[in-house]
């Protein structure tokens, strides 16, 4: 019998250049794989067709190799596996847990504003307003009419129905060295409302793809940033609904830049390639992210 070999993964989105925060996450996964005799997978999360670019993907390979990280090939690129996500959506639809939602962003913003005019309206753990629409209760005729009009459609999870089916859920958190809760954490998927599982532009979503891929790739330990801590609630729920195993999670601290803000591509944080061009070495990067010892 095989002993359970740990499987780690680093799963960046090629929508910008990697920065120090990514270096920390990738090096942590690499070190842990080394220390535990485990495997390290690289997954390219490129479902966002409008923001992902091939040159950013190439830059990921270059930057990780420069850091001295080795990963297994072939690399899984999510854009090549849309059929696996469609299949999962079909299964959830067959369970009566998904419904089509046609509203535009503008329409949703208008519905939220109308709710907020009446009083406080709940926000999800990322601070976005919970979906306020009524698409869940559209009649079959209305849905058919929308579909016929050719309007793009998103698929949302009927959270109340999903929770009835799953019952209470927990996940195993092993966030050593971070400010995460550790041990058995109670999942609160309801905090996200009726999340989108298939977007209008692409028949999947971050939540769905990550859960399917972690299971398909046999990932045993998900090491990723603290910003995704509460997303794990949704991931745990989807695992339960789809009969998939749940990895152990280890959410790590987020690096802050000199002004204390979270590092992010969107905030124009200094990219690894820029640091490299300034003469910074991979060993310097390890020191900068607080990983002083090599694996
Ligand atoms: N692709 C996600 C990101 O770049 C990370 C997903 C994950 O680790 O679960 O933020």
Automatic annotation (TrEMBL):
InterPro entries: aa-tRNA-synth_I_CS (IPR001412), Glu/Gln-tRNA-synth (IPR000924), Glu/Gln-tRNA-synth_Ib_cat-dom (IPR020058), GluQ/Sye (IPR049940), Rossmann-like_a/b/a_fold (IPR014729). Its EC number is 6.1.1.-. Coiled coil: none annotated. PROSITE patterns: AA_TRNA_LIGASE_I (PS00178). It comes from the Bacteria. It holds the Pfam family tRNA-synt_1c. Residues 9-289 form the Glutamyl/glutaminyl-tRNA synthetase class Ib catalytic domain. The keyword Protein biosynthesis applies. The keyword Magnesium does not apply. GO terms for molecular function: ligase activity. Keywords: Aminoacyl-tRNA synthetase, ATP-binding, Ligase, Metal-binding, Nucleotide-binding, Protein biosynthesis, Zinc. Belongs to the class-I aminoacyl-tRNA synthetase family. NCBIfam families: PRK05710.1-4 (NF004315). This is tRNA glutamyl-Q(34) synthetase GluQRS. It comes from Tardiphaga alba.
């Amino acid at each position: 019998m095989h002993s359970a070999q740990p499987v780690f993964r680093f799963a960046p989105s090629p929508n910008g250049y990697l920065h120090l925060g990514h270096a920390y996450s990738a090096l942590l996964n690499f070190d842990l794989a080394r220390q535990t005799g485990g495997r390290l997978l690289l997954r390219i999360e490129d479902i966002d067709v409008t923001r992902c670019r091939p040159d950013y993907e190439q830059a990921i390979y270059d930057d990780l190799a420069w850091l001295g990280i080795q990963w297994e090939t072939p690399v899984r690129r999510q854009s090549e596996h849309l059929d696996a996500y469609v299949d999962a959506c079909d299964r959830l639809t067959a369970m009566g847990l998904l419904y089509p939602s046609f509203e535009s962003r503008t329409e949703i913003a208008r519905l939220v504003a109308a709710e907020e005019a009446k009083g406080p309206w709940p926000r999800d753990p990322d601070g976005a307003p919970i979906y306020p629409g009524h698409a869940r209760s559209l009649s079959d005729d209305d849905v058919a009419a929308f579909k016929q009009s050719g309007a793009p459609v998103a698929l949302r999870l009927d959270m109340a129905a999903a929770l009835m089916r799953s019952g209470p859920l927990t996940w195993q958190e092993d966030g050593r060295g971070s400010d995460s809760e550790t041990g058995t954490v109670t999942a609160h998927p309801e905090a996200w409302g009726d999340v989108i599982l298939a977007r209008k532009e692409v028949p999947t979503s971050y939540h769905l793809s990550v859960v399917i891929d972690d299971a398909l790739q046999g990932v045993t330990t998900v090491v990723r940033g603290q910003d995704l801590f509460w997303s794990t609630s949704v991931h745990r729920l989807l695992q339960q609904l789809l009969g998939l195993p749940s990895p152990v999670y280890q959410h790590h601290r987020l690096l802050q830049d000199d002004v204390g803000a979270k590092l992010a591509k969107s905030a124009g944080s200094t990219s690894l390639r820029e640091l490299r061009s300034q003469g910074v070495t991979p060993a310097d990067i390890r020191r900068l992210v607080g990983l002083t010892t090599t694996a």
